Amino acid sequence: MSQRQIMRAVVIHRHGGPEVLKLEASWPRPVPGPGEILVKVGACGLNYLDIFARNGMPGEEVPLPLITGGDISGTVVAHGQNVTSPALGTPVVLDPNWGCGACEYCHDGLQLSCLSGHMLGERDDGGLAEFVKCPATQAIPMPPEYKFEEAAALPITFGTAYRMVITRGQVRPDDVVVILGAGGGVGIAALQLAKLVGARVIDTASTEKKLECARKLGADYLVNYVTDKEWDQTIRKITAKRGADVVIESVGAASWEKSIRCLGKGGRLVTCGATSGPMATTDIRYVFRRELNIIGSDGWTHNELRRVIGLAFQRKLAPVIHSVLPLEKIAEAEQLLEDRAVFGKVIITPGAPDAA
Length: 356
Ligand SMILES: [Zn+2]
Prior knowledge:
2 domains, binds zinc ion, Quinone Oxidoreductase, Chain A, domain 1, seven-stranded mixed beta sheet
């Protein structure tokens, strides 16, 4: 291993817009402690989480300075004490979330509920850097032919979608599943998982271009929720007034009321986010008359992530990549995400200092 103990990293010293993303040329390289590995970053996928962490989240303090970026693939280059695997040189993708290992939730395998949980790029330094460290148990070895850029498109969105569609939503063959915001990373993953189960999928998106991409990924019906103001009625028409079985929600305030209205008897609304705002109205009559289930979903367990990444490694699920950009273009990359100008993931590669 090189003796050079510094690295290039995008560091946030204070909260704010893209202007607070500072490319540091000689930031201290992390040193793996007992049970930890050091990973040379191959690629890092961006998520809205990175923008939330950069802007500052009310009620959810993040430590500063911070390196964001939670979707990380790379090569194991050093072991801390008591670590023997994965072997040095193994290509891995990282589960960014882990718990204290000792509380009641962790004992149930629910590190996502741990009250002193860890998250790369949010509570721990992430992958917008040349190196990152984490517990060795977070590393999932990759098949040699799988690309770092593909693997870095997987953990957060596919882990989130797996728990929503499979564990919490219990989607079954022939269910009608409505996916809100088909162009987002979770939407793309949820569509593929619902199709893999055998469900029929109605994808909704804000532009025809995103809907065309969703059609290519297997969506059965497409609804433009910007031009079709009564899209909940459209969904009832598509389903011959029966309504949908499951709605996969991450939009929040802007779509909530219609998401409730488009569900049929016994329908399940599964929500993992509220990107358009957290406050919405629920017409309670729909909830009791149709015996609706409103189900929260937050993250993934380590086993859920291993299963969904395993499906991707078998090419049963495909990460969709919008663009791959070098670390130097991080501000531009995050702007793409904020402008919702993407279908699929924006991936950052640390590259060489002169590669930009
Ligand atoms: Zn715990």
